[in-house]
Amino acid sequence: MCEISTTLKIQGWPLVMCTYHDGEFMPAKAVVFFDQKGDMSKITKFNIDKTKQCFNNKPVSPVIKVNEDIDARFLQVGNRVEFVM
Questions:
Q1: Which of 23, 36, 46, 81 is in the most buried spot, having the most CB atoms within 10 Å?
Q2: pTM higher than 0.85 for the full model?
Q3: C-alpha pair distances (Å), 82 with each of 5, 14, 21, 30, 55
Q4: Is the pLDDT of residue 20 over 80?
Q5: pLDDT tens for each residue of 27-36
Q6: How many CB atoms neighbour CB 7 within 10 A?
Q7: What phi and psi, each to the nearest 5 degrees, are found at residue 22?
């Protein structure tokens, strides 16, 4: 599990940057976003990559390009993200 740290729009699709993640996430088959109320939205059309933290020694952080429609309330900073293998 990680949290959304930044959300941008790239070519009309959301690009979600997350806080560091201790577990494996690259082979994920789905990504589940939770809003502040605990409601969830599951997507299966996405691209995922990883990036290193710049100013600390924490594990890698996921970067997710969402390739399907999702309600903006699930993409707010601080929301929880889980990966389904």
A1: 81
A2: yes
A3: 14, 17, 10, 9, 24
A4: yes
A5: 999 999 999 9
A6: 18
A7: -75, -30
